[in-house]
Each structure stands twice: as C-alpha cells, then as structure tokens.
User: Fold this.
Amino acid sequence: YIAEREPDRALRIKALHDYVADRVAYDAVALAEGRYPPQDAETVFTTHLGVCAGYANLLTALGDAAGEEIVVVVGDARTDGSDLTGESHAWNAARIDDVWHLIDATWDAGSVEGRTYNKGYNTSYLFAPPEVFAVSHFPEQINWQLLAKPLTRGEFFRAPMLRGEFYAQGLTL
Assistant:
C-alpha cells in the first residue's frame, strides 16, 4: 500500500518507520524480567509488542515488502543507567539512492521506566546524522557507524552522553 502510494523513497521509509514507532509498544515487562518472547517480524506485527530487536526486524520486513533495502544493525547503546557500560541494542540502516541512513524506531517510539512503557513518538533517530548516532549507538560491525573516521569502543564510552533531541534542536558541543 505505502510503496504504491508514496513515490519518494525517503518519505516511504519514514512512513514505515512511523508505522513501527507508532503501532508497536515496547515490552517493558520482558525487559525488566529478562525473558523475551519471539522478536520476529510476524510476531511483533501480530502482537504489536516487542523490544528493540522486534522493532528492527519488523522495520526490515516492512522494507522488504515495500521494495526498500533496510537492514538490522546490532551493537550496544548507551542509555540512562547504562551510559558507562552500554547494553545490547538493535536498530536499522536504510539505503536511499546508494546512501545509507540510520534509523532507530525503538527510541523514536517512547521510553521505558522500570516495567512501564511511555508512548512518545518522535523522529530524533530517523535519518539522524551518523555523528548523532555515534554518541549513543555502537554497532558490532564498525562500518555501520557510517563515519569517515570510526570511533573506537573506548572513544565511544568516553564521549559525553547526549540524546538526539539535543542535536535536533541545533545544539552542538
């Protein structure tokens, strides 16, 4: 449906991102208990519930259905409480006109406090510049940093922790 009605590839991928960020609720209980149900695209699409892997898998599957090249990127993310050590995380990269762009529909969907998910759609991590992603996302495969000079793991963890909203407001350090 989206592929037929939206000719602009960036807007098509944004529509897929928006669907995932708006229609999937984060499974805060599974995160708190450390017990995760299946995170495949079909399960997340059906239950409207997932953790980061589910969001990323669903966005990739929707991209496949719409004829878009969207891949899952895995690595570590720095979040409140894990800014010094990181925690396992998954997000996406999408190719538009031979240029890769980073996307994190999970972080654009809302936030988690303990066992509670707080819906709060935004687009701070939709096509954010690689320099913004590099503050909080460290991929296992270094090429997914999309930086001219990739960061080392040590540089990543030594850098100040800022959210995408900081950069979206036009602020810099």
Summary: The longest strand covers residues 87-96.
